[in-house]
Each structure stands twice: as structure tokens, then as C-alpha cells.
Design a protein that fits this description.
Protein-Tyrosine Phosphatase, Chain A, UDP-N-acetylmuramoyl-L-alanine:D-glutamate ligase, about 20% strand, about 400 residues, six-stranded mixed β-sheet, alpha/beta
Length: about 400
Amino acid sequence: MRLTGKRILVCGNGLSGQAVFSKVKELGGEPSFYTGGDFKREEYDFAVVSPSISKKGELYFKFNSLGLPAYSEIDFAYLIEPRTIIAVTGTNGKTTTVRLVEGMLRESGVDAVAAGNIGIPLTASRKAGVTVCEVSSFMLEQSSFFRADYSAITNIRPDHLDRHGTFGEYDRLKRKLFALTLLGVAIPKENDYTIKEGLKRVTYSREERADVYVSNVGIYYKNERIIDLEDVRIKGVRNQENILVALSLCIAYRGYDDRYARFLRSYEGEPYRMAYRGRIKGKEVYNDSKGTNVAATIAAINELKSSVALLLGGYGKREDYGELLDEMGFGKVFYCIFGKNKNEIAEECEKRKVGYKVFESIESALDYAFSLRVDNILFSPTTSSFDEFSSYEERGKYFDELLEKYKL
């Protein structure tokens, strides 16, 4: 795509919008940020739209009525500079899987960089030997021209229903990634995905033998143990699944390399993902601020074998919190609820007669959690952070700061 003299409307001035604006200027185009109001078709050659802007909104309606082409940020990045891409989407585990793929490939001598929803817009990332791109449902909703050479879907659980309306639509968008894939996929052996003919397939499983699988003692490829589980630094069922996906992607891309296992012996995981904060006042404390949906919090609680004070609440995404309560059953979890959607969660707790209490702040919820007779305190908000914080990272850092006074 040639940009010299092209007039581009950049919609959204967050990280992706700023990256697009800079790249357009660098390539001789004339970028303008959309600041609201009306505009005419003849004023622009095309638009590039932030992932935060829904295709069902008024702005896309305007594009369609004027006949103005509108590209997603990853469409734009791919069109101006095609590159080798390994793409990962899914509800939970995307970022860890991307970091695992990036790390294993680097360890084995490949020039790999991570980009996309991980926090570095594809437009701003350098062209490397391979780009490992985290792709969200928002990005997939908008995209038509982006292509991945290899891809995987970590899992699909209800999420972002406030944006997509139904789980069926969210599920369709996640599965769309395989339709945008050119060479190969990593897929669970037990799957119902529709895969195009001609794509290379590497299968993985936690339940039975596959190309890549896990047993109670190790991780295997082609029935050969490649690493003992005790040597893997990141623990738990969720991380085993992330490792299986990442290994399968690396194998699909360039075959197996012993150096993949070497990386797994050193990788300590991403921050605020079931991060252990130590034994404080007789309780094991975990910071799982990345727990932004019901499925993630259920998985986090299932990693804990005894009683839990769960701190949850924030900006809801139209999920069914009853699913969390039903999955946990009665007695293991006491729910310490805060945030914008606290009343909604409390209502589900009341229906099921489970132990809960509502608080005006995370700090007061944490105070109460330390007074309970439980073995574990888990901060896994089950929601997005946008009622009080700019990101789950900021929220996780705030929780860590709150913990400091209890360590005295």
C-alpha cells in the first residue's frame, strides 16, 4: 500500500491510533485524528479505526454510507508491510501464550517479536523474522485483510458480551482467525473447529495422546518426554494448556527444537496472572488482576485446594456471574464484592445463599478478607478494570501496594 499524498482519517488516539498516525506521516501520507463531528467522503482516501470502536456503532455506519474504506489497525499494518505472523487469540491465556512462543523461538535462534493486543501495536512493531501477534475479538471484528501464517485459539469462553451482544457472535469472531490463516494451525485434538483444507495441523491435549500432550509427570512431543513438569517454572492447569498451545505453534512453524524446553525452565510468567504474593497474616495471597472474566476466575479458584476469600468486582461485561457461583458450589469461597457492578454480583449471591459481603472499595474488601477464617485470599476481579483503573496492570499494582501494610 502506497501512502504518499494519501489523506487518512485515524479514528482513536490511543496506542494503536498514535502508531498509525506516526506511520502514515513516515510514509508520506497526511494523517488526521477524528475528533468527532461530520466529514465528507472527498476529504479522505480511507480511515484506520481503533479496536475500541465497534463495527455496529455510528462511525462505521457513516463510513458505509459514504463509501469510505475503513481498515482495522492490524489490517493497515499488514497491508503496508506484510510479514511472517504467528497469531494467537482466545478468551484467556493469549498473552502468556504469545510470550511463550516469542521466548521459545528466540531461545532457538529465531528473530521473534511480540506485538498486537499485548501492548505494542502491530503498526509500531519492527519487521522481524517472525511476529507473534496477540489478536483480540475487537480486532477480528474489524479485520478483512490481515493474514496469519500460523495461528491458534487458546480457548473460547463468554466475554465482551457488552460489545458483541451474544456469545455466538463472540465465538464466531474468535473462530474467524482460522479463516485468515495461510499455512498452519495448532488445535486441540478434541475440537470442533472448521479448518481449511491444506493447512498444516499440530494437535495438543491434556486428556489424551496427541502431537503434543501432558501427563502427570511431563510434557511430550511425538511420545517423547521433552520436559518434566517439575522443571517448568509456571505452574497450574491453565499454564499447562498455554504451554501446549505455544509448543504446538512453534512446532508448526519450524519443527521441534530442544531449546524450547530450555526456555520453559527459565520463564516465570506474566505479571498479575495468579501471581503468588506470599503467606501474609497466615493466609496465602494471590494477585490475579488479569482475571477479567468468569472463566478466568473459575480457573484461578480451581488452582487452590482449600477455602478462599475471593475479591471481585469492577466494570461488568454482561457476563453471567451465576455461572461462577454455580461452578464453585457452596462453602469453598466467600465473596468480597466491590466495584461498579457490585450490586449485580451480590444479587446472584443472594439468590444462591452463598457467603458474601459488599464493600465500597478494594481496600475495605481486603481488610475484611484478612479477618475471615480462610486459607487463601484471591484477588481475581472477574471484570474489566475500567470503572477505576486504566488497565488490569494498574489495578494489579494497586492491589500489591495495598498488601504492603499487612506485611508489617
